[in-house]
Write a structure and sequence with these properties.
Chain lengths: ~675, ~260
């Protein structure tokens, strides 16, 4: 206990650790805002912009869900009963029979009157948020770095391991400290999330049953949401502890921080992939079910009812999860403790690319007199920023996949509008006008059919169809009429204006994207000067012939190249968003020809706005990088050099968003 | 070639205290030992001589020209080996020397040959393709000395070149410095007297920013009564009379008498 107290105290007194913990907390909060701000729920309840009657639609959905719930329960019970009753005597020891019995028993406790009629938008949104898992992983890495790796790198581990309690006892104390931090951080994060969701969507009703939330329909318990949240928070704290111990165990085996990050990154990516890609009914379903990431999510842990076949007996997946991961934790923890008890210095690293022949060949790439190349090589390979580049590439792939997913429109009007625009989009021609006329004729036919129908139900059906399409068609007709008014009709385009507005009129999303790019740039360039200043190498470099002005120029160019990498990622994602709308076939449309802007707006075209946004973003990112380099010369700490400009950027972006001023509004020439 | 130190004064706190106080002297080709306890101002003087620090007052002239005005031209003649420190551990010795060659402006077509020569001089050819994190303390020191020799500098400044080395490696470094000194001005900063006793032409004794003595080893030894070597001179001039006396009595084999 005594040593645990010291380990805890030591960590709390490390400024960089507390700064990292604070930063992760802030980022976690920022991620919640980022995830929520684009949702209809947020717009309707927090911003009070319920343009698409979202709340009404949600009420209807909840009503429908409540009315369907007893049917769901009946189906589950009936299926289980049927299986049970139709199983032959000799097969009553099979998994299928036992599973049916267990399912019937588990669901017999549930009363269909449990579910609440009131819609639970806040809870729906809360339950859907899963990203806390990644912040816990990051925090676990921070804890392990300061507890273990930094001590080893500084040589202090050699000192402590020479004490009588400096090995096994110290390792056990570190596990204890990790457990405490896991619990504290997770509970803090969960509490903060609850506060944020209450702030966005109104006070959350903790007394409502878990099954009132559609995402938890399959839950087989009789707990309230308050009890579920408490339980899930404890589960998450336990998962955090599991993650921390696994990371700590990996650190015992590998000496390099970046090796540990790579392994953990690969395992985490694997967990996310497994939890989203593997089929629930396939051969490898157990892998998905037992994924840590899946268990972290509400939907994965409480929202899915599944029993695994363990020697013919149905065992709840949650129990299997707990056993598997606790066993893994115990094994890793034991391994780590045993390893700590052995020779501290005699470790062999995992991934050391060792042979001199390979290094000799690699060394030849450095046979140059170009200083810029050396500065880039230092950043990418010595300071491991190549990993950031790889992570950016993977992130870009994921982002583009998200963008290319099929769009689901929240209202019929929007869906109809997009349907008509997709038929007519492109340069205006006779065909476009003919299509418009044809669509109007279709509507007229529907109206006539409704009027002439003898059966009232059929008349209602035709009117409903008419209403489904009418608003959307009106919007498109208004657009075409506007283009005609502007003159020179056949040089203009029918454009999906609402999709473009979705990009431009979302300053929070655009600001978040820029902030992420800024964070990446600052991370990439934080190693240009700071490490040399901290290690004292800067004095040596400055004493050489080219160690001043030329080195400064070389570093400036290296900074520009590193900024460009991040700017390219930003640009690729932005271009993908534009491309997704209409493949840039309408890129020549001028902003002043947009109906939604009423004829105001700049004479730039869509393509020019896109390119202008990218260029301006790249320019501001480079300025930010230069600011960071300047700060590095005065403050040696890398973390502070990243945090200061980042906070400044966040403050400026927040102020800009509040005032409605953004890069897009500047280029569009309209106030958004 | 003459390097003149002309009334150098350095203060970090606007004149409240002086890290260097009126340091004067001149250096021609030869080996100079800069001796002094911790905080004497050795590193400050070296940082000024490498133009990493501007003195509060005074100047350093190379053949009559202020080194701070000479800029890159002066640094092109300079070779500096700082005290052993964190190197670029993930680079090989070869990569590190190519980087330093680029910083020293050595053209690519000549760099390979020069690097090969300095590696041979410091006896690191066999390990040039190993990562520097695998180097021992002596090897790290030697690679730092190797990079300081790149470009055939006329002025060599070595800060504690034997720090942390075992006796045989220290002897090797001392002999090595003697070999390469030639027509160069070599300034070695240390607080280990034996490192420079046999190789330095002149010794500069610094204490609390002031030059106590700047003279040849022989003159200094003759100046101090009872001094048998440079260590005695050092102890006496640093005011460590007790140690000096102990040293004397142990050397003379007489019983220790407290003064």
């Amino acid at each position: 206990m005594f040593i645990i107290r010291w380990e805890l105290s030591r960590l709390i007194h490390i400024r960089e650790f507390m700064l990292t913990a604070g930063l992760l907390f802030v980022l976690s909060a920022g991620t919640i805002v980022w995830q929520e701000q684009g949702t209809n729920a947020f717009r309707a309840l927090f911003l009070h912009q319920d343009e698409n009657a979202y709340i009404l639609a949600e009420n209807e959905r909840q009503s429908e869900y409540v009315s369907e719930y007893d049917r769901f329960l009946d189906t589950v019970r009936q299926q289980s009963t049927w299986t049970k009753d139709n199983t032959q005597e000799e097969e009553r020891k099979s998994f299928a029979y036992r599973n049916a019995v267990k399912t019937l028993h588990d669901y017999s406790k549930i009363n269909e009157n449990l579910v609440s009629q009131r819609n639970q938008i806040g809870w729906n949104q809360y339950v859907a948020y899963d990203y806390g898992f990644f912040f816990v992983l990051a925090f676990g890495m921070a804890v392990t770095y300061f507890l273990v790796l930094r001590e080893r790198r500084s040589g202090r581990a050699v000192l402590t391991s020479s004490a009588c309690r400096g090995r096994t006892m110290l390792a056990a104390a570190q596990i204890g400290a990790a457990a405490v931090f896991a619990l504290l951080y997770t509970l803090a994060e969960e509490s903060f999330s609850l506060i944020m969701y209450s702030l966005f969507y109104g006070p959350l009703d903790f007394s409502v049953s878990a099954q009132s939330i559609p995402a938890l329909r399959d839950f087989s318990g009789t707990l309230t949401m308050g009890e579920c949240v408490a339980l899930q928070s404890l589960v998450r704290a336990g998962l955090s502890f599991v993650c921390f111990i696994l990371i700590w165990g990996i650190c015992s085996a590998f000496s390099g921080m970046w090796q540990v990050i790579l392994i953990i990154g690969a395992v985490s990516a694997g967990q996310v992939y497994v939890s989203s890609q593997i089929q629930l009914t396939g051969r490898y379903a157990a892998l998905r079910i037992l994924s840590l990431f899946r268990f972290w999510s509400f939907g994965g842990s409480m929202g899915t009812y599944r029993n695994l076949d363990i020697a013919g007996f149905p065992v709840s997946k949650n129990i299997c999860m707990a056993v598997v991961w606790l066993t893994a934790t115990a094994m890793t923890g034991t391994f780590g403790v045993i390893r700590s008890g052995s020779n501290v210095c005699g470790r062999t690293a995992g991934f050391r690319i060792g042979t001199e022949q390979v290094l000799k060949k690699l060394s030849r790439m450095y046979h140059t007199s170009a200083l810029t190349g050396f500065e880039l090589a230092k950043s990418l390979f010595i300071h491991r920023r190549i990993l950031v580049v790889c992570a950016l590439a993977i992130l870009t792939v994921f982002q583009i996949r998200e963008i290319r997913k099929e769009r689901v429109y929240p209202t019929n009007e929007e869906a109809a509008y997009h349907l008509y625009v997709s038929r007519m989009e492109g340069k205006v021609s006779e065909r476009t006008l003919a299509q418009c006329e044809a669509a109007r004729n279709e509507q007229t036919e529907r109206m006539n059919a409704a009027a002439m129908a003898e059966d009232p139900d059929q008349a209602d059906y035709y009117m409903m169809e008419y209403d489904l399409y009418e608003r959307g068609l009106e919007d498109v007709e208004a657009q075409v009429a506007f283009l005609e008014e502007r003159g020179n009709l056949y040089s203009k385009y029918v454009v999906d204006e609402k999709e473009y507005a979705g990009i431009w009129k979302n300053p929070v999303q655009n600001a978040s994207a820029f902030l992420c790019a800024a964070a990446t740039v600052l991370l990439m360039t934080s190693c240009i000067v700071s490490p040399d200043l901290q290690s004292g190498m800067e004095l040596l470099l400055r004493s050489t012939r080219y160690g001043r002005k030329k080195l400064r120029h070389a570093r400036g160019i290296a900074t520009a190249i590193l900024t460009l990498i991040s700017a390219v990622q930003y640009a690729v994602v932005l271009m993908a968003r534009y491309w997704q709308i209409d493949g840039m076939t309408c890129g020549g449309q001028k902003i002043s020809d947009f109906y939604i802007f009423g004829g105001s707006g700049s004479s730039l075209s869509i393509v020019q706005v896109m390119v202008g946004t990218i260029i301006l973003a790249a320019f501001f990112l480079y300025l930010l990088a230069l600011l960071e380099i300047w700060i590095q010369k005065h403050i040696k700490s890398e973390l502070v050099c990243i945090a200061l400009p980042l906070l400044l950027t966040a403050a400026v972006l927040t102020a800009a968003c509040r005032s409605g001023f953004t890069v897009e509004s500047l280029l569009l020439g309209v106030r958004l | 070639m003459e390097l003149s130190i002309d009334h150098i004064r350095m203060s970090y706190d606007k004149g409240k205290t002086w890290a260097l106080d009126d340091v004067c002297g001149s250096m021609q080709a030869g080996v100079y030992g800069l001796l002094g306890p911790n905080g004497a101002g050795k590193s400050t003087l070296m940082n000024i001589m490498t133009t990493n620090l501007r003195p509060t007052e005074g100047k350093i002239l190379l053949d009559g020209k202020d080194i701070f005005n000479m800029g890159g031209a002066y640094r092109a003649m300079l070779g500096y080996a700082p005290q052993q420190q964190k190197l670029y551990d993930d680079w090989t010795g070869d990569q590190f020397l190519w980087y330093m060659a680029a910083l020293k402006g050595i053209p690519r077509r000549l760099a390979g040959e020069k690097i090969g020569q300095v590696l041979q001089l410091v006896n690191l050819t066999d390990v040039q393709y190993r990562k520097m994190k695998t180097y021992s303390g002596g090897m790290r020191q030697r690679i730092l000395i190797a990079q300081s020799l790149l470009g055939d500098p006329q002025i060599l400044i070595l800060d504690e070149p034997t720090a942390g080395l075992d006796p045989s490696e220290r002897a090797h470094i001392r002999d090595f410095i003697k070999t390469v000194a030639g027509e160069k001005i070599v300034l070695i900063s240390t607080h280990v007297v034996s490192d420079i006793e046999s190789i330095a032409n002149e010794v500069i004794l610094l204490k609390r920013g002031r030059v106590l003595r700047w003279d040849t080893t022989e003159h200094l030894i003759r100046e101090i009564p009872g001094a048998r070597g440079l260590e005695d001179v050092y102890l006496s001039l640093m005011g460590d009379t007790l140690q000096f006396t102990r040293h004397q009595t142990s050397v003379n084999g007489q019983r220790y008498q407290e003064r």
